[in-house]
From TrEMBL:
Keywords: Metal-binding, Zinc, Zinc-finger. The lineage of its organism: Eukaryota, Metazoa, Ecdysozoa, Arthropoda, Hexapoda. This is AN1-type zinc finger protein 1. Residues 4-52 form the AN1-type domain. It comes from the Eukaryota. PROSITE patterns: ZF_AN1. Coiled coil: none annotated.
């Protein structure tokens, strides 16, 4: 009696093992033992190569180009602007696109701001003319000078800054002029001090108000107050400001120069304020 054929040999030549439970490859349709049944195990020629390169992998991923000019960035996530509906990368998400409502608000605000700017410009021009006229009258004598001094004092009081704990009855007002740095434009600031202070403290307070940086070295030039003609108020820093007012060395509302003291006289093109 002829025995039935049992099992099959592995198709791999180097193996040829008789396997009673052979496995048929789904790609090349050959039979293999369990050790060579996987496509990679027998170098299957029927299996398609489905591997792709990195460039191919990137190309298959959907990406979105940034709409910003000259930007080559691409994102895998679409980032649409709420207003212009264009896609932008993270770096250009703030691309200057304006909400129409915000643009309308900005236009309305501009309509209100324009007259205000024009008013401020006109006010600045008028103030400049008044300053020039006041300074001209203060160089005179008699009624015109007294009136000019009163007007200047009134205007300084409107914008002067100083220590809030100085009693109103003890406040003396000055318009301080200084040059922040060599070659810079002169600046001015309305300030008030206590007339009961010594002149040294008055100088320090005005220097602080004007944010003038001083050198702590004892041999360095010291801040002093000068009339607009360059004449120093006083060399005595212990003298009380009240005494200078009584002796008419200076007046309430005077324009003064604050500068570092040197042997030369402070330059000025303005007339004196005594």
């Amino acid at each position: 009696m002829e025995l039935p054929k049992l099992g099959e040999r592995c198709f791999v030549t180097s193996c040829s093992q008789l396997d009673f439970l052979p496995i048929k490859c789904a790609h090349c349709s050959q039979t293999f033992c369990k050790d060579h049944s996987f496509p990679l195990g027998h170098g299957c020629t029927g299996m398609l190569d489905k591997s792709i390169s990195d460039d191919q992998a990137v190309a298959t991923i959907e990406s979105y180009a940034c709409s910003y000019e000259a930007c080559e960035e691409r994102n895998v996530v679409e980032l649409l602007c709420t207003y212009c509906k264009k896609n932008f990368c993270v770096s250009h998400r703030h691309h200057g696109c304006m909400d129409p409502r915000r643009e309308a608000q900005r236009a309305r605000r501009e309509r209100f701001e324009a007259p205000k700017r024009q008013f401020n410009q006109a006010k600045e021009a008028v103030n400049k003319m008044l300053d020039e006229k006041i300074e001209k009258n203060r160089a005179l004598s008699g009624t015109k000078k007294d009136t000019a001094n009163k007007i200047q004092l009134m205007r300084i009081k409107q914008k002067a800054t100083g220590r809030k704990n100085v009693p109103i009855s003890s406040r003396t007002y000055f318009l301080a002029h200084w040059i922040p740095n060599e070659g810079a434009e002169p600046q001015s600031k309305a300030v008030f001090v206590n007339k009961e202070w010594a002149l040294g403290r008055v100088v320090d307070e005005i220097g602080d108000q004007c944010k003038i940086i001083t050198d702590k070295n004892p041999s360095s030039p010291k801040l002093r107050l000068f009339h607009m003609n360059g004449e120093i108020l006083s060399e005595d820093m212990s003298i009380q400001l009240q005494k200078l007012l009584e002796d008419e060395i200076t007046i309430d509302g005077a324009s003064l120069i604050i500068d570092f003291h040197s042997e030369t006289t402070v330059d000025s093109t303005n007339s004196g304020d005594k």
